[in-house]
Amino acid sequence: MAEKRLAMVVDTVRCIGCSTCALACKVENNLPNEIWWNRVLTVGGSEIDTPELRNGHLEMSYLTLACQHCENAPCVKVCPVGATFKNEDGVIMQDYDRCIGCRYCMVACPYTGVRQFNWEDPEYDVPFPVGGAEVPAHQKGTVEKCTFCAHRLEDGLEPACIEVCPARARTFGDLNDPDSEVSEKLREKSSVQLLAEKGTKPSVYFLT
Amino acid sequence: MTATSVKSEGRVSPYPTWLVLLGLLVVAGLAGWIIQLVQGLVVTDMRNVTVWGLYIVSFMFFVGLSAGGLIVSSATKVFKTTRFDSIAKIATLLSFSCIVAAAVSILPDMGRPERLWHMIIHPNFQSPLVWDMIIIGIYAALSAVYLWMMIRHDRGAISSDALRRMAFFALPTAILVHSVTAWIFGLQVSHPFWNSALMAPLFISSALVSGTALLMIAVLWLKRIGYLEFSGSQTRSLGALLSVFIVVDLFFLFSEIITEAYPQAAEGTEALELLITGAGAPMFWAEVLLGGVVALYLLLSRRTREQPGWVVLASVFVIIGIFFKRFNLLMAGFRLPLVSAEATVQTGPVSPNADTLLQTLEEGLGYFPSAVEWAIFGGVIALTALIFTLGVRYLPLGSVPEEEAGV
Question: Helix count (H) and strand count (E) of chain B?
């Protein structure tokens, strides 16, 4: 068993769907055009920011979706070359230099679209790299995804999406530490894991 | 399969034309692959949700097509029948050509084909892709060795017993190759319709169906050019075998569908609607009606079952049906994402299918292969035919003595 089990807790009641987390992620990880590791989904109508009729009321909520860093990760099992692996803190990592671009991990992942493929040479709207200096260069023909900002964790920081959230809906920490903020929140409030019935044991929890 | 007249009778051989045609198609496929290598997989219609497409369909399809040969030729040895001895070598050559095509189909699917060797230096033995690489390698080697042994056997250099022992290895390997290919999909919980214990049996039955149909076409063509002897009653027998496989395959399909339908649970119902009345319906019904009902009629009716023309037509229907089945299986999985709320951003570049017709098809199916994908698929088909044609030409595989065959 790993010493740490890093996890993220997202409070869907506090979330206002502003997409700041998605943007901070995009900037911090210098993501190429059309690549998004973290996205905000509208749980409601058939278009973004539209509600649906539930029990006679119009209702709408948001779901921020990125890699769930599963304890039992299907992507790690299926990767033929071990380019997708779990590090000692329970974070699922992707080795761009080893990836052969077969996309089996994307097929095996039940959380549609959290893994992204560089279909063409990475292109950027600004002529210089942005975000963390230690972020590895993006490569054509390889798969990538959220790393819980592994480069920031090494410096003792939290992932970029945590601190920018204006609604303070996102918290990050070690689940094996009973005094951590994430452990506390999970004790206090009811939470769900996405597609828990698939047995993947995600490390991202949504407070409801 | 237009190459019909022969040197010995017609003087004009279509053989060079056939080779040039295949060569051109292979070159077109290679050109497509080069374009893709330069620009990236953006030239395909695959995107971040429809992650796999025609290349993987082609892979499944050719793994299946390779079944007929080796299973027919080794099963006859294992069960000691001589009914199909005259086509055993051709059948094995066909298996070999198709399994090579299956392996080749994977290359253009890879974002980084130059890193293929990572599969050998860093294999993850938990991955069904690694199992498949191993079993396909063994299968290709086995079919090549088995073919070589049969040729040596004809010359009296190898005993029938040795051949039979080899068949005992070949048959289970053939069964396993389809099972492992099925498990690439069947072991995944990520898509509705895939995670089924029936997946491996279904892949075996579909493989037997399409493989036997392809064998039938190849054998009847070689008979027509005077390369092989294959009687009307042998045609009928192989047709009967094919019919049994079709019935078993349809039964498995029905069993899968009723299992999804009966609980009336949302996931199963959605997948079924997509297949039976939705975007996949034209292909599904073509598979069941043309590749199933019509093919069975042609193969079993007293009026058509010994007529090469009708039997070949039935076989073509069967092969197209299985191709559609593979396509639908892949797409049914991708069309029903498990997390499907509306996203703020579109991930991945826009589709290259700007042409109106292609766009319409794409909107219906959620994915429609781009021109580059079709070119590469065509190249893979041509490569298979090329290997087979050259094998037929240069290896002593016929049952008609060589001097009479004139091929």
Answer: 16, 1
Give dist(CA B255, CA B306) in Å, integer: 32
**CB < 8 Å to A117, chain B:** 41, 48, 51, 111, 348
Residue A172 to chain B, least CA–CA distance (Å): 23
The closest CB to that of B129, out of A46, A98, A102, belongs to A102
What's the pLDDT tens digit per position in B369-397? 999 999 999 999 999 999 999 999 899 88
Query: Cα B272 from chain centroid?
Result: 24
- For chain B, what are the domain ranges? 22-337+347-404
Asked if A207 reaches chain B (Cβ–Cβ under 8 Å), the answer is no
Q: What is the mean pLDDT of each run of 10 residues along chain A (208 residues)?
A: 84 94 96 94 86 90 95 96 94 97 96 93 93 94 96 95 96 95 95 94 95
CA-to-CA distance for A88 and A91, rounded, in angstroms? 7
Cα B26 to Cα B143: distance, rounded to the nearest angstrom:
23
Both structure tokens of A180 = 């951590």
A94 touches chain B (CB under 8 A): no
Could you tell me if A21 lies within 8 Å of chain B, comparing CB atoms?
no
Which burial class, exposed, middle or buried, applies to A41 when counting CB atoms under 10 A from its CB (0-12, 13-18, 19+)? buried
Judging contacts by C-beta atoms under 8 Å, the chain B residues touching residue A113 are 48-49, 337, 339, 343, 347
Fold annotation for B22-337+347-404: Formate dehydrogenase/DMSO reductase fold (1.20.1630)
> How many Cβ atoms are within 10 Å of A116's Cβ, its own excluded?
23
**Interchain CB distance below 8 Å, B48 and A118:** no
> What pLDDT digit, counting tens, does each position of B296-352 carry?
999 999 999 889 999 999 999 999 999 999 999 998 888 888 887 777 777 788 888
The residue assigned the tokens 């895939």 is B194
